[in-house]
């Protein structure tokens, strides 16, 4: 039965921006699982996420957000888990066996709570305001990537010998570091793993690499600073 394909009654809508890391994670997952999405671009540089129509859908005004026949969901990892639970139950990318799933869940929390937390400390002010990150924040990120590199010294993929959801969410995020000239490829196991993902995930270059390059160009053109710097100066003056 074609649950979600070209002849499905309802197509899942994805509100997204192509350069966004969590959006790339959702797109890579949908492509890998062959889940058809209707793409609706929300241009964050035009502040389209705070328009009333979008705020009504997602009061947290962030992408990625999906609308599956009226069911609204955001947070990329929750969306990826939902895709499998609802449309590809039993798929090895999010295993059902309790111990295997617990391990995959642990890595999804490691991703959002440890890797992304450390990465955002380094990249957010750099991307948005052009501020050089503190050495202590860079060192912290390197520590976390060293832990990831250690995990990948043992296994081909983060949760073991096969691809699971945290491979996709972690890779989509950390490859963004190229956009701020932070070299993740000096971590040998991470580097080999990214190569492995390129040959495992269909359209990895098109969905991920191309948009990281585009992201880098936008940062270098000052496109984020133009939009956000006046706001930054304003809030700083209020402190
Ligand atoms: N934890 C969220 C992060 C989502 C997020 O921060 N999205 C950014 C783009 S990468 C966004 O929409 N920012 C606009 C805003 O928050 O107004 C996820 O993993 O989906």
Outline of this structure?
The chain has 9 helices and 4 strands; from the N terminus they run E-H-E-H-E-E-H-H-H-H-H-H-H. It has 239 residues and is of the alpha+beta class.
Protein architecture, described:
The chain starts with 11 loop residues before the first strand and ends with a helix. It has helices spanning 21-33, 52-57, 76-87, 98-129, 135-154, 165-174, 188-200, 204-220, 223-238, and strands spanning 12-16, 37-41, 65-68, 71-74. The chain has 2 domains: 12-87, 3-Layer(aba) Sandwich (Glutaredoxin); 98-220, Glutathione S-transferase Yfyf (Class Pi), Chain A, domain 2 (Up-down Bundle). The protein is an alpha+beta fold and 239 residues long. It contains 9 helices and 4 strands; from the N terminus they run βαβαββααααααα. The mean pLDDT is 93. A 4-stranded mixed sheet has the order 2-1-3-4, with helices on one face. It comes from Dinothrombium tinctorium. InterPro entries: Glutathione-S-Trfase_C-like, Glutathione-S-Trfase_C_sf, Glutathione_S-Trfase, Glutathione_S-Trfase_N, GST_C, Thioredoxin-like_sf. Residues 97-219 form the GST C-terminal domain. Homodimer. This is Glutathione S-transferase 1: isoform D-like protein.
Brief descriptors of the model:
binds glutathione; Glutathione-S-Trfase_C_sf; Glutathione S-transferase 1: isoform D-like protein; 4 strands; Glutaredoxin; alpha+beta
Which distinct ligands sit in these coordinates?
A: glutathione
Return the CATH class of the largest domain: Mainly Alpha
Count of alpha and pi helical runs: 9
Q: What is the succession of H and E elements?
A: EHEHEEHHHHHHH
> How many structural domains does the protein architecture include?
2
Largest sheet: 4 strands, mixed
Computed structural class:
alpha+beta
The Cα radius of gyration reads 18 Å
How far apart are the first and last residues' alpha carbons, in Å?
Answer: 58 Å
Oligomer: single chain
The percent of residues in helical segments reads 55-70%
| Mean pLDDT, all residues | 93
Task: Please tally the β strands and state the result.
Answer: 4
Low-confidence stretches: none
The dominant shape is globular
Order of the strands making up the biggest sheet: 2-1-3-4
CATH architecture of the largest domain: Up-down Bundle
Q: Report the β-strand fraction as a percent range.
A: 5-15%
CATH level-3 fold name of the largest domain: Glutathione S-transferase Yfyf (Class Pi), Chain A, domain 2
Protein name: Glutathione S-transferase 1: isoform D-like protein
Keywords: Transferase
Subunit structure: Homodimer.
GO molecular function: glutathione transferase activity
């Amino acid at each position: 039965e074609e649950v979600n394909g070209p002849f499905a009654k309802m197509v899942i809508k994805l509100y997204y921006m192509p350069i966004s890391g969590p959006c790339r994670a959702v797109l890579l997952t949908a492509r890998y699982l062959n889940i058809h999405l209707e793409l609706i671009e929300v241009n964050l540089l035009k502040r389209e996420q705070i328009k009333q129509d979008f705020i009504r859908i997602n009061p947290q005004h962030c992408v990625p957000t999906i609308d599956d026949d009226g069911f609204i969901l955001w947070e990329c990892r929750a969306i990826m888990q939902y895709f499998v639970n609802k449309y590809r139950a039993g798929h090895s990318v999010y295993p059902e066996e309790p111990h295997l799933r617990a391990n995959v869940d642990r890595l999804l929390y490691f991703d959002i709570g440890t890797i992304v937390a450390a990465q955002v400390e380094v990249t957010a002010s750099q991307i948005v305001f052009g501020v050089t990150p503190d050495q202590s924040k860079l060192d912290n990120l390197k520590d976390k990537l060293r832990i990831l590199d250690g995990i990948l010294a043992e296994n081909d993929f983060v949760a073991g010998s096969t691809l699971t959801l945290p491979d996709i969410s972690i890779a989509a995020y950390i490859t963004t570091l190229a956009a701020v000239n932070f070299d993740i490829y000096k971590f040998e196991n991470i580097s080999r793993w990214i190569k492995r993902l390129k040959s495992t995930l269909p359209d990895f270059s098109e969905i991920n690499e191309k948009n990281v390059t585009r992201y880098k160009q936008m940062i270098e053109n000052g496109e984020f600073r133009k939009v956000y710097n006046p706001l930054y100066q304003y809030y700083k003056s209020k402190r």
